[in-house]
């Protein structure tokens, strides 16, 4: 009788669910008809992950495992499970209505993750680790910016309440000039003056160190992003930080995104139906990855100021009576479509390595080129160095050089 039960257990299909934490993962198993079979807790170590997979396999053939937090606390379990050939599905935390109805605990969340994998409500594959380095550099660069901003704000607030002599001397300075002046201070005077000047000097030096740190991280990030996806980095208006954010949002495995509409929804750039009765309308999405939405917004602003095609589009939409906010929403949706193509397909970048040598062999200055095309010399320089992609300008520039 025991052997028959064991054979039946080995043949049945089961689904797993994992509620992940920093030190433990709670694993639940359900049958293919949703029945609860068992649950247990394991440590977040190599031995714990192996025991968790053995626990799942002991109850039958594991069809899929729903994991909550595949890119955070569940990253270790996800890595091990996928290396053993298991299908791992990314599961969002249960919605608030369900939590109010059935409560919250580790077993409840683990069973909810298993049911999400069984029902098909969760279908997204977890992100792979090819963008892990980009994510780490991006987070470090952003934290450096936040810390620098905090130090600059502290300098401003300290100068507001500083003694009048200090406030009159340094309060009128702005930007880098103020930071450089404060960093060179030699505190003198009474106790109050020495203390305030010492604090300002420390904050100014912190700003300079964080600025240098951010520049170094941005340079490393630019190299990683360009190597990973040169087509995305070469798109107009896409800088290192913006490209990194889009890669982190999409993940290194683009097959997890099925359509460009789903990517637009992921970025919060797709209009959401808000119809009822005789009302038929759409509203702006307030969901999705807001950092990715902000990245699309920055691209739209850059193109509105420096891209001739975008400026012409904005002029047409303005003439049609649309507001600036409405135009930016339309641009973000169109940019999301373009970014999806860059993320999911190989986009070839036209070569520009021949432009500078060709110009130099003919002894033509950047100023002369800029005057001919009606742009700033820095624009030509950035196109030559590959820091800015403008295919029309590059083709016209090459033809002009060859004819010169």
Key phrases:
404 residues, alpha/beta, Nucleotidyltransferase, domain 5, 4 domains, 5-stranded mixed β-sheet, two-stranded antiparallel sheet, 19 helices, 60% helix, DNA binding, IS110 family transposase
Task: Furnish the topology, listing elements before pairings.
Blueprint: H1 2-11, E1 13-20, E2 24-31, E3 36-43, H2 46-57, E4 61-68, H3 75-83, E5 88-91, H4 96-102, H5 106-119, H6 132-160, H7 164-170, H8 175-183, H9 191-228, H10 230-234, H11 240-250, H12 260-266, E6 272-273, E7 282-283, H13 290-306, H14 308-319, H15 324-344, H16 355-361, H17 366-373, H18 377-384, H19 391-403
Parallel strand pairs: 1-4, 4-5
Antiparallel strand pairs: 1-2, 2-3, 6-7
Task: Quickly describe the structure.
With 404 residues, the protein is of the alpha/beta class. It has 19 helices and 7 strands. The longest helix has 38 residues, at 191-228.
Quickly count the helices. Answer: 19
Radius of gyration: 28 Å
Helical coverage, percent range: 55-70%
Q: Give the name of the CATH architecture of the largest domain.
A: 2-Layer Sandwich
In N-to-C order, the SSE pattern is: HEEEHEHEHHHHHHHHHEEHHHHHHH
Q: Indicate the mean pLDDT.
A: 88
Q: Let me know the CATH homologous superfamily of the largest domain.
A: ATPase, nucleotide binding domain
- What overall form do the CA principal axes indicate? globular
Q: What strand line-up does the widest sheet have?
A: 3-2-1-4-5
CATH class of the largest domain: Alpha Beta
Largest sheet: 5 strands, mixed
Total beta strands = 7
Termini Cα gap: 92 Å
Share in β-strands: 5-15%
Number of domain units: 4
Protein structure class: alpha/beta
């Amino acid at each position: 009788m025991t052997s028959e039960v064991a054979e039946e257990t080995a043949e049945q299909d089961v689904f797993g669910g994992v509620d992940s934490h920093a030190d433990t993962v709670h694993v639940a198993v359900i049958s293919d008809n949703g029945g609860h079979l068992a649950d247990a807790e394991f440590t977040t170590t190599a031995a714990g992950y192996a025991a968790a997979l053995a626990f799942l396999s002991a109850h039958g053939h594991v069809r899929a495992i729903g994991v909550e937090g595949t890119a955070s606390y569940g990253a270790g379990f996800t890595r091990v499970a996928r290396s053993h050939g298991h299908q791992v599905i990314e599961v969002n935390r249960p919605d608030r209505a369900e939590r109010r109805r059935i409560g919250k605990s580790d077993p409840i969340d683990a069973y909810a993750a298993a049911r999400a994998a069984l029902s098909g409500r969760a279908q997204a594959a977890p992100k792979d680790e090819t963008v892990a380095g980009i994510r780490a550099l991006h987070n470090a660069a952003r934290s450096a910016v936040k810390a620098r901003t905090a130090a600059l704000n502290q300098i401003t607030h300290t100068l507001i309440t500083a003694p009048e002599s200090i406030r009159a001397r340094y309060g009128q300075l702005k930007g880098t000039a103020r930071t450089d002046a404060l960093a060179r201070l030699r505190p003198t005077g009474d106790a109050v003056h020495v203390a305030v000047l010492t604090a300002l000097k420390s904050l100014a030096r912190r700003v300079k160190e964080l600025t240098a740190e951010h520049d170094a991280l941005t340079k490393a990030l630019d190299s990683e992003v360009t190597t990973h996806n040169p087509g995305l980095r070469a798109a107009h208006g896409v800088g290192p930080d913006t490209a990194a954010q889009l890669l982190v949002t999409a993940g290194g495995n683009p097959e997890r995104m099925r359509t460009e509409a789903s990517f637009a929804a992921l970025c919060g750039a797709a209009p959401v139906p808000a119809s009822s009765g005789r009302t038929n309308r759409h509203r702006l999405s307030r969901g999705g990855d807001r950092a990715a939405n902000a990245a699309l917004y920055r691209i739209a602003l850059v193109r509105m100021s420096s891209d001739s095609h975008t400026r012409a589009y904005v002029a047409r939409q303005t003439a049609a009576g649309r507001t600036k906010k409405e135009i930016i929403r339309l641009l973000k949706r169109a940019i999301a479509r373009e970014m999806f193509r860059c993320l999911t397909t190989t986009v070839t970048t036209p070569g520009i390595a021949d432009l500078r040598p060709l110009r130099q062999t003919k002894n033509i200055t950047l100023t002369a080129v800029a005057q001919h095309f009606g742009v700033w010399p820095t624009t030509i320089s950035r196109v030559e160095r590959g820091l800015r992609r403008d295919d029309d300008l590059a083709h016209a520039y090459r033809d002009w050089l060859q004819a010169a």
